[in-house]
Amino acid sequence: METTQGGERSASPEELLGEAVEEEEEKQKQESLEEMLARHRDEVQKLQNKEISLKKEAAKGSKAEQKAKKKQVEDEISRLTAQLKSKHSQELASLGYQTADDVVKAISGVTISGKNEPTKPSKGVRRREKRAQQEAAREQRIQEEQSQIVSDRMAENEKLEKKLEPLGLTINEIKPDGHCLYRAVEDQLSLHSHDAAGYGYVELRRMVARYMKDNAQDFLPFFLAENKMELDSHCTDVERFEKYCEEVESTAAWGGQLEVGALTHCLKKHIIIYSGSFPDVEMGKEYKCESGSSVENPSILLSYHRHAYGLGEHYNSVVPTGMR
């Protein structure tokens, strides 16, 4: 042991080496946690993709066969979801993270057993803490909602199936990637060959954004009602709306009622949205074919799922039974 001139004890080389090793181990542990959380998200996404694939397979065959297969798929997804949730919890616990707060501290570089430091955290630390809180909040939502979402989803799907079956309709599953509204509309247009050309989901987004900008007076009041002004925002209402339209065009922002309204006018189509959680919605009634035949301008049929996936709503395409 060495002492300074003031009599204070200074760390020995062995102690300094030990501290360096501990810091390196903590760094590796943090990196392992971040990698684990990324893998967890990837595994959840893969399970969602598997569910879509299984549901598409279950939609084949007679009505009786489809009903039996769908029940098997729901049971299988419920079992796999529970297994995945348990696996993720155990893996986080193996690193010593029992709660979301533990995960926040680990990602932001704060030891779980550490005491409050008297010094003010730097901007870098605060940024890491904010990102860590967002990451942990997302992880916690996934863990909590996976258990609840299965039962809610099954109830919602059952109600929707009872509504669609007498109409000779069924669900065609659409990928849950933020573009689901536009992909579902794209799928509907592809049912009619003369509508298919040039209307992929990217082009549909572009059309919607352009229409909303050109007709801002029709959309701005509804936009403001749904999007409250941020306290630190220095943008005008018009600037906020234009920025929103840019996000509609160039990002995977989820589409809602505003975008559906724009789609009806862009495509001059009557749109029906079926739901197992809410009353059905019709938009663009002025484009509805009243001649008794829908061949000339068929309606677009979509389904809205409040509980399809844990972190947001979802749209699917509704097609005649046996078509897909």
From TrEMBL:
Acidic residues bias (residue ranges) = 16-25
Q: Which CDD domains match?
A: OTU_plant_OTU5-like
Q: Where is this region: Disordered?
A: 1-33, 48-75, 112-153
Please list the residue ranges that the record marks as compositionally biased, kind Basic and acidic residues: 131-144
Q: Which GO terms describe its biological process?
A: protein deubiquitination
Q: Residue limits of the OTU domain? A: 169-321
Which superkingdom, per the lineage? Eukaryota
Gene Ontology molecular function terms on file: cysteine-type deubiquitinase activity
The Swiss-Prot or TrEMBL record describes its family as follows: Belongs to the peptidase C85 family.
This chain's protein is named OTU domain-containing protein 6B
